[in-house]
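input
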Amino acid sequence: RRLAKALAASGVSKGMRVAVHMANRPEFAIASFAIAMLGAVMVPVNTFATPDEREYILRHGDSALLLFQCSLLKRNFLDELLCMLPELQANNNGALHSTRVPHLRQVVALGLAQTHGKVQAWESFLARGDDFPDDLLNAMIAEVVPADESLIIYTSGTTARPKGVLHLQRAAVIQSWRFADDLRLSGTDRVWTTYPFFWSAGICMALGATMAAGATLVLQETFEPGAALQCLADERANATQCWPHQAKAMAEHPLYRTLDLSHIDKEVCRL
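output
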């Protein structure tokens, strides 16, 4: 609700496109629900995307606001964005205006200590909504219906430009409940996943299904077999979701033979 209020106070309303460029972390989950509450349309951005692909997704998706994290592994998304959009360096409170991404007006960075030019720091942005009226937020939420546009998922772009697929509110909700039922998830499960939230499996099979079942979601931003195994053991995660090559890497890691992983009883390995 706090993020939804900050978005609403910043001009986001029903039908507006909000891009989210983050790895699997709590803020991604919070953003997805906050955007949906307002009836806005979330545009998840692939964290593997090149700067050129990211620019294309922001432009093609007509994103008016971007929520992103400053860096991930060796990538510095903030520096890349400043290079792409030098207009962000301007030290004023006005909206962004760029012919490269003509609909983008605001940029908010997670991991930034303080606002840099037109790039707003996450905490400062959240504070903008603290005085937003709760009754107005509730009224905005009440206007959202299952037939409203909700989500644009982009393909990986391996054969050409990434292709955006528009989904309605009901699509992600129904598919999330369906996955929760198919996977037999319950409120006592602890789900560890490597499926990225910016694709449909991550949105519905991981994030959506876990929330639909009232289960606990265990997240790591990046995959490394030793760290993954240690996380599974420490967090007592009993439901795992990963790609075949990741399952193979964990099975061949020395920790696989020394850690107690007997609590794992639900496994999904998706091709």
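quick obs: The radius of gyration is 19 Å.
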